[in-house]
Amino acid sequence: MSTSQDQLKKQAAEAALKYVQPNSIVGVGTGSTVNFFIDALATMKNDIEGAVSSSDASTERLKAHGIDVVELNNVADLPVYIDGADEIDEHMRMVKGGGGALTREKIIAAVADQFVCIADQSKVVGRLGSFPIPIEVIPMARSYVAREIVKLGGDPVWRQGFVTDNGNVILDIHNFDILDPVQLEQQLNSIVGVVTNGLFAKRGANIAIIASPSGLQFME
Ligand SMILES: O=C[C@H](O)[C@H](O)[C@H](O)COP(=O)(O)O
């Protein structure tokens, strides 16, 4: 029987439990892979102090499992942040934000000592950018930011009807020819009205757990 993508996501998610430190707060990302992680984390909820969450959806799932959700402002020490990705390359740079949670994800990732990325093999790419780069934008700046992105060579598409947990909109940028992800990440963030973008290049993952039908691969 072939291994389904969901089974692979679950395997990567469960393998991430070994990076959770007892008596600590755990940083929790967002998405279908992380949902498996949250379900697995519930098995050790009495060993941790709680979690910081990157989205309302993850918060709801954590609370449904009886895991305390702590406000990030009250957390001084965050040993590990565990999250999925839409794309990850061999340097552990990522594209994230397919679910629109990129800004809170990037904030928690910045605070955490270690970023553990959990993914099935379909997320591994030679070069970032086939997956459109999400950009969270202040609503009144949407058209201006879109025009600036066209000047940079991308094709912005407004994710109509979608509002982020922060009350903003998302532009998905297609057809970017990404030669230098760190430079592009900084360039996009310097456009007025951009909150953040889904390139996680400057702060990539420290560890990646990639699940394929032949087993788990740990990249460090
Ligand atoms: O905003 C969503 C996040 O960046 C997710 O980590 C990313 O989209 C991967 O999600 P999934 O595990 O559902 O593929």
UniProtKB/TrEMBL annotation:
<dbReference type="GO" id="GO:0009052">
    <property type="term" value="P:pentose-phosphate shunt, non-oxidative branch"/>
</dbReference>
<feature type="binding site">
    <location>
        <begin position="30"/>
        <end position="33"/>
    </location>
    <ligand>
        <name>substrate</name>
    </ligand>
</feature>
<dbReference type="Pfam" id="PF06026">
    <property type="entry name" value="Rib_5-P_isom_A"/>
</dbReference>
<dbReference type="InterPro" id="IPR004788">
    <property type="entry name" value="Ribose5P_isomerase_type_A"/>
</dbReference>
<dbReference type="GO" id="GO:0004751">
    <property type="term" value="F:ribose-5-phosphate isomerase activity"/>
</dbReference>
<feature type="active site" description="Proton acceptor">
    <location>
        <position position="105"/>
    </location>
</feature>
<comment type="pathway">
    <text>Carbohydrate degradation; pentose phosphate pathway; D-ribose 5-phosphate from D-ribulose 5-phosphate (non-oxidative stage): step 1/1.</text>
</comment>
<feature type="binding site">
    <location>
        <position position="123"/>
    </location>
    <ligand>
        <name>substrate</name>
    </ligand>
</feature>
<keyword id="KW-0413">Isomerase</keyword>
<dbReference type="InterPro" id="IPR020672">
    <property type="entry name" value="Ribose5P_isomerase_typA_subgr"/>
</dbReference>
<feature type="binding site">
    <location>
        <begin position="83"/>
        <end position="86"/>
    </location>
    <ligand>
        <name>substrate</name>
    </ligand>
</feature>
<dbReference type="GO" id="GO:0005829">
    <property type="term" value="C:cytosol"/>
</dbReference>
<dbReference type="GO" id="GO:0006014">
    <property type="term" value="P:D-ribose metabolic process"/>
</dbReference>
<comment type="subunit">
    <text>Homodimer.</text>
</comment>
<feature type="binding site">
    <location>
        <begin position="96"/>
        <end position="99"/>
    </location>
    <ligand>
        <name>substrate</name>
    </ligand>
</feature>
<dbReference type="InterPro" id="IPR037171">
    <property type="entry name" value="NagB/RpiA_transferase-like"/>
</dbReference>
<protein>
    <recommendedName>
        <fullName>Ribose-5-phosphate isomerase A</fullName>
        <ecNumber>5.3.1.6</ecNumber>
    </recommendedName>
</protein>
<comment type="function">
    <text>Catalyzes the reversible conversion of ribose-5-phosphate to ribulose 5-phosphate.</text>
</comment>
<comment type="similarity">
    <text>Belongs to the ribose 5-phosphate isomerase family.</text>
</comment>
